[in-house]
Amino acid sequence: MSEDSHNAIESRSDYTDEEIGLAAQCIAALLTRHGIPKYRFAVTVSEILGLSYSAGNRRLTTNASWSLEELKHVAEHFNETLEELVAFDKADGLLDASIVINNHVISCRIRLGNIVGQVPPGTLIAAEIDGAWRAMPAEARSIIPAHAVTRLLIEPIASRRRVAILDDHADTAQTIVKYMETAGLDAVAFSDPQTLFNQSDFDAYVLDWIIERDARRQTALELVENIRARNGHCPIIILTGQIGTGNANEENIAAALAQHNLKFFTKPASMPILLAALNSSFKTA
């Protein structure tokens, strides 16, 4: 085979599912879940595994073999387990998204089609807004890149999930609560860690890492440890905007994330991304 032919094969991006192995499909789904654009897939895999670009590209665009250690390494880089990586419901091409119906934000899952330009008004499309996918009917004029939606799945929820919101700034807590409520969650705001812990169990927690009360500053670590002592799997999301000020220690936060299986976002957090993270965590909790 000539070098030109070899390069041509490496640069292809239109392989069918039969040509691309299941492992590569799972990795592609993982990268998409974490907001990596498709053109960065090969670069990202290469950097994580310490491969050349060509080797990383072959992993994703041909039926090249993956070792379990490589799959585990990529999954752990994005704070996922190997089991989560290969879970069927995450490798089926459906992405977590939301759609607004009667002024309510409804969680859904979508399969993206091709990028579209001018389409008839009312055509179902999806666009990535603030890092999260939003499905919507097309308007007469579209000013954002959008994909056709080839499948949209909305699953009924038997009961509303309860989410505790801890923040010493009441306005911030209420902003999160209101958004979660419009998405169908039962959200409750707290300003004191002990008061929160004394309440009955919640399905998930969104916690400000630094809490200041009565001229005393404390982290949410003790609360996280207490929650994990009675619920080892519920989603816990940590928020903070104080790393830059020095009030929040990055190493302490990183250690807590690793030890207690937490997710982390800087403040101010994007509400669609926060909701998507919760919904994703509910599926694996």
How would you sum up this structure, described in words?
The structure is a single chain. This protein is α/β, with parallel strands linked by helices and 285 residues long. It folds into three domains: 88 residues, 434 Repressor (Amino-terminal Domain) (Orthogonal Bundle), CATH 1.10.260; 59 residues, no CATH class; 123 residues, Rossmann fold (3-Layer(aba) Sandwich). 38% of the residues lie in helices and 25% in strands. A five-stranded mixed barrel has the order 1-2-5-3-4. A five-stranded parallel sheet has the order 7-6-8-11-12. The N and C termini lie far apart (49 Å). The N terminus is likely disordered. This is Response regulator receiver domain-containing protein. Keywords: Phosphoprotein. InterPro entries: CheY-like_superfamily (IPR011006), Sig_transdc_resp-reg_receiver (IPR001789), Tscrpt_reg_BetR_N (IPR013975). Pfam families: BetR (PF08667), Response_reg (PF00072).
Mean pLDDT score = 81
The fraction of residues assigned to DSSP E strands is 25-35%
What's the total number of strands?
A: 12
CATH class of the largest domain: Alpha Beta
For the termini, the CA-CA separation is: 49 Å
CATH architectural designation of the largest domain: 3-Layer(aba) Sandwich
User: Which percent bin holds the helix content?
Assistant: 25-40%
Assigned CATH superfamily of the largest domain: Response regulator
Low-confidence stretches: 1-20
Biggest β-sheet, characterized?
5 strands, mixed, barrel
How many domains in all? Answer: 3
Q: Which fold name fills CATH's third level, the topology of the largest domain?
A: Rossmann fold
